[in-house]
Amino acid sequence: MSLDRKIAPDIKEPIDFKISLPLIQKATLKNGVDVYYLDMGTEEAVQISWMFYAGSWNEEKKSQAGATNFMLKNGTSEKSAFEINEFFEYYGAYLNRTCYTETADLTLHTLNKHVSVLLPEVSKLIMDSVFPEDELALFKQNSLQRLKVNLTKSDFVAGRLIDALVYGEEHPYGRYNNAEDYTALTREDLVQFYEKHYKQGYCAIFLAGKLPKGILEELDLHFGSLPFKNHKGYKASRIFKPTPAEQKKHWIVNDEKGVQAAIRIARPFPDRTNPDFQPALLLNTLFGGFFGSRLMANIREEKGYTYGIYSYIQNHLGETAWMVSTEAGRDVAEATIEEVYKEMKLLCEEPVDDEELLTTKNYMIGSILGDLDGAFQIMARWRNLLLNNLDEQYFYTSLQTIKTASPEYLMQLANKYLKPEAFHELVVI
Amino acid sequence: MIQLEKFVLSNGLRVVVHEDPSTPMAVVNVMYDVGAKDENPSKTGFAHLFEHLMFGGSINIEDFETPLQMAGGENNAYTSNDLTNYYVQLPAENLETAFWLESDRMLSLAFSEKSLDVQRKVVCEEFKEHYINKPYGDVWFHMRELCYKVHPYQWMTIGKELSHIETATLQDVKSFFFKHYRPVNAILVVAGNVKTVEVRRLAEKWFGTIESGEKYQRAIPAEPKQTEARFKEVNADVPLDAFYKCWHMDQRLSKGYFAADLITEILGGGGSSRLYQSLVKEQKLFSNIDCFHFGTVEPGLVTIEGKLVKGVSLDKAHQAVNEIVEKLVQDGISEKELVKVKNKTESALAFEDMSVMARANSLAFYELLGDAALFNSDRDQYFAITADDMLNYSRQIFDTNNSNTLYYKSTQN
Question: How many CB atoms are closer than 10 A to CB B142?
């Protein structure tokens, strides 16, 4: 029997899959701090994150939150920065710091056999960091140098300006650091921030992997008596309202000799609790969310204006933005923008055909299934749910939304949001 | 140890299966034994451009992406100096869709003029985005030419210049395909929630009838041993001076490769590494400094690179780097450092192996090197390296006559 290669093999459509989100468990330490954990996997290794509400939202001076988070590894009363690094690296462990807008993390990746010796050291970083002056001076010098290099890159400049246009420069989502912000930073700024937002901060612990025996008891031993507060008690002390720029179009020449234009087109978008949020994720995927999207098919695969073009909805806890982002040839920058608006118009005027919609839905479900592969990825999804005060029901509703959204409904949604006049448009060369 | 099975189809296609029932997904990884090193020096960047064309439709299937997305799958590809790799991840139930798609593009491409025309532009934009429109973006064009006088590692996978990509013809595309993209030059790895029996059946069904093709006989001239130190200075419109220095190292399968890998960790891996501690923290000469190697199949490069603190001279920075390297060559490493880099390696491998995609990719690479089963034995070599080995290989690598130094000077001062 000869093989007909023109006929695709039968598939089981992902929209018919029954996907379940593995549940996580919760333990509570003596001090009331919640530990969310997931015991899954075959490698003898874990990931532990200590999350604090210590993001830039709470800073009183620009760059304060990021600098404090970065310098958690740069000295305690017992160990120098070198000794701290040497200690964790000796055991092959990775200790990373990350600062977001609302929260900031310390994350440990380690083989199980070393976890017991590492945990007490982590607690010292959170309780006994001293922020040495010379370390701060170095941090400032190196941040300034990095900023200087980054400011010559059009994509970096565009990335920070578009946020400022959408949220306003005062809003934590729109704020960015300039050289003088680093220069003005003092040791006292860091110590104050640390005292309030780490040592006595609102904390949660996320633990995932093939959990070693007794790990919860060990966490209680080293972190259960510290003066942290349960993360659910956190309430932002300051309210910021976005103040979008009035002038919608900006064209900036950052580098006369630049051969490409960094293009960002963005509009404000409501937060996750808005009923439009989940269906908009589907519409976004169709518009510019994956390789098969309208933007990619037209502007890269048909016209060759760019190496890549994407749209996405920013992942914020509060109100957010819907963004189109690309680097296109300088001479085709205007043509690219025009095509983006054309694609918006098309989504507003013509219902998407059934085949294309089904492809997008199947792709999204397959991608969610792939994302749920592994303890760390599952925990990341849960963390996002928890911080938004959501649970697994939200996950199942989102699957249902993807499965059932109709072309007419998506067209209505496009008419509500994908209106060129609502978008800020920024070109940086 | 991971489970794996191997077989070869009658057309020479090597197949490796790795069963992992803990995931709902399957990965289909096709690696072709061709990279930028196999290019004609006047047509560089071609292997990578060709990779883009593999998504422009095959002989029986007009559109590669849509049926894959319909099956819930995602895919991507990359080209290096040594090889070209294509990988698909999709729900295991729909495994056959990946076989259908990958086998058709191995059978033959559609060779469309339109696809070539568009992808030439896309790759030119990629070239601009990463190598022209970025500060320091052209460093490796200079450095590779300084280090390699004969060997084709002297150019990057993106190519030497835009014109090489702009002038590629459909005839070039066809001959490249029938020379390199044949079953006999390819490796298929299928991993995840799959069964070997089923993979064998699907491999025979979809790939078994593709004409074998001729085994590509690689005849690349070896880079002659470097006999004197080389130096180059480049002036560019960047905010800060940057320093780069490269030394030749051993090929992938030799003991020297593993020693070099650990040496780069000692010198540049993390906040307790020698270069960072001395040159960034204590002497404050660099704002950042790294040490790494390229992981190439044939003899590669150990590299130290960093940006200077404003006001520090390149000569002074260079001398400080030399002192650190000299100390290593003189005194070797301590037992504690050796334990540290081995612990780091053990941990890095464990975290890497968590992803079935990474495992599939490594299996294909090991099969390319000679045997997929190296996955389970190759890394033992790290743990057999002694402090004496480290000393001896440091002396071999950091010989002054084996060095290539590049000063990348800011004209903004």
Answer: 17
Residues B138 and B255 in one domain: no
The rounded distance, in Å, linking the Cα atoms of A279 and A283 is 6
Same domain? For B159 and B82 the reply is yes
Q: Is B334 in the same domain as B285?
A: yes
Q: How close, in Å, is residue B240 to chain A by CA atoms?
A: 7
CB A154 within 8 A of CB B133: yes
In chain A the first and final C-alpha atoms are separated, in Å, by 59
What ipTM does the predicted assembly reach? 0.93
Residue to substitute from B53, B133, B283, B382, interface A, most A β-carbons within 10 A: B133
**B239 and B102 co-located in one domain:** no
Tell me if B335 is assigned to some domain.
yes
Residue of B nearest to A429 (CA): B133
Q: Spell out which residues of chain A touch residue B96, defining contact as CB-CB under 8 Å.
A: 9-10
In a domain, residue B378? The reply is: yes
* B213 falls within a domain: no
Please tell us whether the domain made up of A25-233 is placed in CATH 3.30.830.10.
Answer: yes
- Answer yes or no: do A43 and B74 touch at CB < 8 A: no
Please name the residues between 244 and 303 in chain A that touch chain B, using a CB distance below 8 Å: 255, 257-260, 290-292, 300-303
pLDDT at A1: 57
Contacts of B73 in chain A (CB under 8 A): 363, 366
Tabulate helix, strand, coil % of chain A (nearest 5).
Answer: 50, 20, 35
Measured between beta carbons, the chain B residues lying within 8 angstroms of A89 are: 269-272, 340, 344
Claim to verify: residue B55 and residue B176 sit in the same structural domain: yes
Task: Tell me, yes or no, if A90 comes closer than 8 A to chain B by beta carbon.
Answer: yes
- Same domain assignment for residues B98 and B164: yes
The answer to whether A145 contacts B60, with C-beta atoms less than 8 Å apart, is no
CB contact under 8 A, B351 and A149: no
Task: Residue B107: list chain A partners with CB under 8 A.
Answer: 5
Are B205 and A6 within 8 A, CB to CB? no
The residue of chain A with its CA nearest to that of B308 is A145
One digit per residue, pLDDT tens: chain B, 413 residues?
A: 899 999 999 999 999 999 999 999 999 999 999 999 999 999 999 999 999 999 989 999 999 999 999 999 999 999 999 999 999 999 999 999 999 999 999 999 999 999 999 999 999 989 998 998 889 999 999 999 999 999 999 999 999 999 999 999 999 999 999 999 999 999 999 999 999 999 999 999 999 999 999 999 999 999 999 999 999 999 999 999 999 999 999 999 999 999 999 999 999 988 999 999 999 999 999 999 999 999 999 999 999 999 999 999 999 999 999 999 999 999 999 999 999 999 999 999 999 999 999 999 999 999 999 999 999 999 899 999 999 999 999 999 999 999 999 999 999 86
Indicate the pTM of the whole model.
0.95
Task: Answer whether residue B219 is part of any domain.
Answer: no
The β-bridge relationship of strands B74-79 and B5-8 is unpaired
Residue-number span of the structural domain to which B239 is assigned: 230-410
Homologous superfamily assigned to A249-428: Metalloenzyme, LuxS/M16 peptidase-like (3.30.830.10)
Copy the structure tokens of residue B396: 């071999």
Long-range pairs for A175-178: beta carbons < 8 A, 24 or more residues apart:
A175/A56, A175/A62, A177/A62, A177/A63, A177/A66, A177/A143, A177/A147, A178/A62, A178/A147
- Whether residues B241 and B197 share a domain: the answer is no
- Find out whether B357 and B363 touch, Cβ atoms under 8 Å: no
Q: How far apart are CA B167 and CA B177, in angstroms?
A: 17
Taking the CA of residue B53 and the nearest CA in chain A, the distance in Å comes to 11
How far away is chain B from the Cα of A281, in angstroms, using its nearest Cα?
17
Copy the structure tokens of residue B327: 């100390």
